Amino acid sequence: MTGGTGVPPSGHGEFVELSEDVSDSPLWNADLAPTSLASRTWSTYHIAALWIGMSVVITTYTLASGLMQQGMTWRQALTTILLGNAIVLVPMILNAHAGTKYGVSFPVLCRAAFGVKGANVPAVLRAIVACGWFGIQTWIGALALEALLTAAWPAWATVPGSIAIAFAVFWLVQVAIIVRGLDGIKKLEAWSAPLLVGGGLLLLWWAVANGGGLGNVLAESPKLQQGSTPFWTLFPAALTANVGYWATLSLNIPDFTRYAKSQRSQALGQALGLPLTMTAFAFLGVAVTSATIVIFGEAVWDPVVLIARIGSPAVVIFGALVILAAQISTNMAANVVSPANDFSSLAPKRISYVTGGLITAALGIMMMPWKLYADASAYIFTWLIGYSSLMGAIGGVLIADYWVLRKQELSLPDLFSVRGRYSYSNGVNPKAMVALALSILPVAPGFVRAAMTPGGVVANPTAFDHLYTYAWFVTFALSAVIYLVLMRNRRS
């Protein structure tokens, strides 16, 4: 049963609003409070634009290239990317449901399954991954800023520590946006989506026009295949990596869908904005990189380097500005909103959304993103797959709890009560913690082996390595099953 709620005039129960004053609770602050019905204004376009803004980014551009470097054809790489994003769309929409219905953010939703204090464990795990991503996207943005400054002022290239300065400037620009709070995210994504799509299409037009047509360009794509690993050997890990790419957002998507107009808006917006955009932009990366073989006689994988080689300073500056816009729009939505809320949930009365965002920005530097992104193979097979195991384990518990155990029924007041139905044992649900830990154990040895192997691809895989290649799927399924078994006698 839901408590302290109100249902809109439609009478269908699609929305639930908190009608009790829980502001005195140590678990409450204005940023974590459930959204009111009046503030749920995001349409299908806004949700789709959010995904376009997050997907059109350099890491997506290079995703297919990383798979092709290992030996996949462009068709195999794009099929893998499309399938991975179609799979992750399912938990994305399922977790989004609670955000839209109850207006709650991810760390608050976690309280139902993990306990009002135990929820901090999955929240912090999610936040740490976001900090790593924030650093990676900031580093890529700094490279684009470096290219822009060099094109506008060639002497910039001789300035000692120029890349460090560019990194600091780009980091500070984002900090300035963080300080302004959450209000600008909706407008930023709605404005940047058409700009990013337009910039991408212009780059594709340049590649096709100067590469002798699309057919001629794609005919060069086999030259991008630097590895010889068979497709079916690569496919499991590559599919898991592509699921892992957005496994983080599949957890904290309620942070955004709490503002959605309806369940239809969030579901349709995500279906239109995620798989198609990811696949299309990855294809653009393959086509343009293949065209560089025709135009320059060598493959130019990095779009920042490519823009610097295209020609006139005006073109370089425009291209770099588009890349900067892509990095900022992705970072603000994908890698700041969630950890800001997650850190805020640790001490709601002392840590606001803005303070949580500043913590994210600081940790993003400390995680040395230039190393995380330095090796494409390690980036895909260690970073993406590795953290996907954590995200899968959390997602399995959340979906099993909300959809199977509680049948989409939550008590909003109790999510902010230290002695409510979600307090469990001193605020922690030990059964959820056990499910989380046990589901990760089988893939841990494979992660250690991959992390210690150059490129992340183990030459003589063991059974544990095979399990690790399916990390997200393994931990998601195990955590859901273990959680439901442990909770089978609970009725509230």
Short description:
The protein has 24 helices and two strands. It has helices spanning about 45-55, 60, 65-70, 75-100, 105-115, 120-150, 160-180, 185-210, 215-220, 230-245, 245-250, 255, 265-275, 275-295, 305-310, 315-335, 335-345, 355-365, 370, 375-405, 430-440, 445-450, 465-470, 470-485, and strands spanning about 5, 15-20.
Protein described:
- By secondary structure, the protein is mostly helical.
- The protein has one domain: Hydantoin permease.
- Helices cover 68% and strands 1% of the residues.
- A two-stranded antiparallel sheet has the order 1-2.
- α3 crosses α4 and α5 runs antiparallel to α6.
- The chain is globular, with a radius of gyration of 22 Å.
- The termini are close together.
- The N terminus is likely disordered.
Relevant terms:
disordered N terminus; 2 strands; two-stranded antiparallel sheet; 492 residues; 24 helices; mainly alpha; globular; Hydantoin permease
Report the structural category: mainly alpha
- Within CATH, the superfamily carries the name Hydantoin permease
- Largest sheet, order of strands side by side? 1-2
CATH topology: Hydantoin permease
Give the C-alpha Rg: 22 Å
SSE topology sketch:
Layout: E1 5-6, E2 17-18, H1 44-55, H2 58-61, H3 63-70, H4 74-102, H5 106-114, H6 120-152, H7 162-179, H8 184-210, H9 214-219, H10 231-245, H11 247-252, H12 254-257, H13 263-273, H14 275-296, H15 303-310, H16 313-334, H17 337-346, H18 353-366, H19 369-372, H20 376-405, H21 430-440, H22 444-451, H23 463-469, H24 471-486
Antiparallel strand pairs: 1-2
Helix pairs in contact: 1-8, 1-13, 1-16, 3-4, 4-10, 4-13, 4-14, 4-20, 5-6, 5-20, 6-7, 6-15, 6-16, 6-17, 6-18, 6-20, 7-18, 8-14, 8-16, 10-20, 13-14, 15-16, 17-18, 20-21, 20-24, 21-24, 22-23
